[in-house]
Amino acid sequence: MADAKTITVDQLFAIDGLLDAEEREIQQTVRKFAAERLRPHVADWFEAGTFPAREMAPELGSLGLLGMHLHGYGCAGTSATAYGLACMEMEAVDSGVRSMISVQGSLAMTAIYKYGSEEQKQQWLPGMAAGTTIGCFGLTEPDYGSNPGGMLTRAKRDGSDWILNGSKMWITNGSVADVAIVWAQTDDKVRGFIVPTDTPGFTSREMHKKLSLRASVTAELSFDDIRLPEDAMLPEARGLSGPLGCLTEARFGIIFGAIGAARDCLEAAIEYSQTREVFDKPLAGYQLTQAKIADMAVEVGKGQLLALHLGRLKDAGTLPPELVSVGKLNNTREAIKIARECRTILGANGITLEYPVLRHANNLESVLTYEGTAEVHQLVIGQALTGSNAFR
């Protein structure tokens, strides 16, 4: 009997029919760019523990990917769903590449866009959209991750200026950035500051020996009596709602991105199983292999449908933050399970950089916990359902 015609996971769930023409075009354009400019090099970047951010940022900017869901100031002004689909295609190549785009657009640029003055927007956003100016987002500290309200970084008034002291850790783009959005305690709650990285007293140290997100620049930032003018402060952000609002934007991209990594793992495992012979027939011809593939395809498809549903809600302006937690919790959790299961199909070959699955699995270890751990999102969802705050 002849083998049946094969289909992709997207075709299994009829995903294409859920997208409009512009969304399909953006997704295909980003997929093509990623295949031609990123995928041939990403294994080498991962092995070397580097990413050519300075080289790639202008290319990403010219493609319209930086701050693409923002409007004006040189930004593309796409829908949130289109931005999510771009994140999916970027993370299908590598989580580190998607992180660079998320930090630039959803964190640093969004902070200025949502909370900055018109002068601040005009000064910084066009260059950041073009990729000629790279930004980073300084919230996490060595001892304050899930509980940023305890941060030690502090800004004090000195006449009309601010004096900034403290440190931040695990900062994507930190050592290559031209500008940092730094969150600090003040006498008037947590406030955000736009800090050019050439300001005296600003130092960055790139972090090495990472086992995850190796194709990404990660740094520790230090602030030693940095003097900032009064207009360095973001005027519309007061309290933790400012940085947490930016994180909600970035988490939205992760919902799409993580499932892109899972899809890439599954595609690699399917292709491998079709050509790898075990006991005189392809690995794909065994029931246990097909059971694994079927189960993973169902979870990838469900994750895609969830992401698209949340994208439609966001575009309609009706996406509550607890649903972002649902998406981040589910899609990162399922993605890392899929990456690990795909590795079992590839056997020993799965631990090499010739195939993407263990690289994705290592990256997803970080994606699972950054911008809100699984446990934090469980508590967000639990509070929404029960009305009880269990964080303390």
TrEMBL record:
<dbReference type="Pfam" id="PF02770">
    <property type="entry name" value="Acyl-CoA_dh_M"/>
</dbReference>
<dbReference type="InterPro" id="IPR052033">
    <property type="entry name" value="Glutaryl-CoA_DH_mitochondrial"/>
</dbReference>
<dbReference type="InterPro" id="IPR046373">
    <property type="entry name" value="Acyl-CoA_Oxase/DH_mid-dom_sf"/>
</dbReference>
<comment type="similarity">
    <text>Belongs to the acyl-CoA dehydrogenase family.</text>
</comment>
<keyword id="KW-0285">Flavoprotein</keyword>
<dbReference type="Pfam" id="PF02771">
    <property type="entry name" value="Acyl-CoA_dh_N"/>
</dbReference>
<protein>
    <submittedName>
        <fullName>Acyl-CoA dehydrogenase</fullName>
    </submittedName>
</protein>
<feature type="domain" description="Acyl-CoA dehydrogenase/oxidase N-terminal">
    <location>
        <begin position="21"/>
        <end position="131"/>
    </location>
</feature>
<dbReference type="GO" id="GO:0046949">
    <property type="term" value="P:fatty-acyl-CoA biosynthetic process"/>
</dbReference>
<dbReference type="GO" id="GO:0050660">
    <property type="term" value="F:flavin adenine dinucleotide binding"/>
</dbReference>
<dbReference type="InterPro" id="IPR009075">
    <property type="entry name" value="AcylCo_DH/oxidase_C"/>
</dbReference>
<dbReference type="GO" id="GO:0033539">
    <property type="term" value="P:fatty acid beta-oxidation using acyl-CoA dehydrogenase"/>
</dbReference>
<dbReference type="InterPro" id="IPR009100">
    <property type="entry name" value="AcylCoA_DH/oxidase_NM_dom_sf"/>
</dbReference>
<dbReference type="InterPro" id="IPR013786">
    <property type="entry name" value="AcylCoA_DH/ox_N"/>
</dbReference>
<dbReference type="GO" id="GO:0000062">
    <property type="term" value="F:fatty-acyl-CoA binding"/>
</dbReference>
<feature type="domain" description="Acyl-CoA oxidase/dehydrogenase middle">
    <location>
        <begin position="136"/>
        <end position="225"/>
    </location>
</feature>
<dbReference type="InterPro" id="IPR037069">
    <property type="entry name" value="AcylCoA_DH/ox_N_sf"/>
</dbReference>
<dbReference type="InterPro" id="IPR036250">
    <property type="entry name" value="AcylCo_DH-like_C"/>
</dbReference>
<dbReference type="GO" id="GO:0004361">
    <property type="term" value="F:glutaryl-CoA dehydrogenase activity"/>
</dbReference>
<keyword id="KW-0560">Oxidoreductase</keyword>
<keyword id="KW-0274">FAD</keyword>
<dbReference type="InterPro" id="IPR006091">
    <property type="entry name" value="Acyl-CoA_Oxase/DH_mid-dom"/>
</dbReference>
<feature type="domain" description="Acyl-CoA dehydrogenase/oxidase C-terminal">
    <location>
        <begin position="238"/>
        <end position="385"/>
    </location>
</feature>
<keyword id="KW-0809">Transit peptide</keyword>
<dbReference type="Pfam" id="PF00441">
    <property type="entry name" value="Acyl-CoA_dh_1"/>
</dbReference>
